[in-house]
Structures are given as structure tokens and as C-alpha cells.
Amino acid sequence: MDKLASQGIKFVNAYSAGPLCTPTRTGFMTGRYPARTPVGLIEPLTGTNKDSTFGLTVEYPSIATLMKTAGYETALIGKWHLGLQPQHSPTKKWF
Question: I need a labelling partner for 30 at 20 to 30 A (CA). Which of 10, 55, 64, 76 fits?
Fold first, then answer.
């Protein structure tokens, strides 16, 4: 941890690509502007709309996919909120 702190980069500023959590997560995970994906801006993903068919599918490469391909182990900790159907599950491809 000390080596990481002394040789790493200090992150002091951030820009959010979307006004809500789901589009912002999509932007972070895919590196795309949220408006370029079908998640969160067309139809909000809320607990009241469990029949929603919108979500992040495996056709969108993600930072987790790139890290996994490079030999890193990946894990999902916390909220997913990138789709409610089985085809949107984070274990489908990303983690």
C-alpha cells in the first residue's frame, strides 16, 4: 500500500457523465457517454419497474472485461443497477 501511495497517481477531480446513478455507472463501466448506451436514460431502472428490458448487455465491453482479459481477477462489490433481467447479470461476462 505504501508503494502504491508513493508511486501512484493522486485522484483529486472527477466528472460525472450523467445526472443519475445508473447512467453514470454505465459511463464508468463502458467508457461511453451514457446517451450512447440503452441504460438509464431511456427508461429509469427502478425497483418499481421490474419488467424493464433495458440494461447493459454483453455486447458492451467494460472496464471489467478489459481487466479480466489482461489477466486480472475482477469482482463486483456494491450495487449493479445496470439491468434487471437475467441477460443483464454482471456474472454473464463482466465478473
Answer: 10
pLDDT over 70, % of the chain: 84
Single-letter amino acid code for the residue at 6: S
Q: CB–CB of 23/17 below 8 Å?
A: yes
Q: What is the pTM of this model?
A: 0.65
Which of the following is catalytic: 23, 40, 81, 94?
A: 81
Does residue 16 fall inside a structural domain? no
**Residues β-bridged to residue 55:** 83
Question: Do residues 84 and 50 touch, judged by C-beta distance below 8 A?
Answer: yes
With contact defined as beta carbons under 8 Å apart, do 57 and 40 qualify?
A: no
Number of domains in the chain: 1
Do 47 and 67 contact (CB within 8 A), yes or no?
no
Look at residues 85, 86, 93, 35 and name the one whose alpha carbon lies nearest to residue 60. 93
Domain span at residue 83 reads 21-95
Known catalytic membership, residue 21: yes
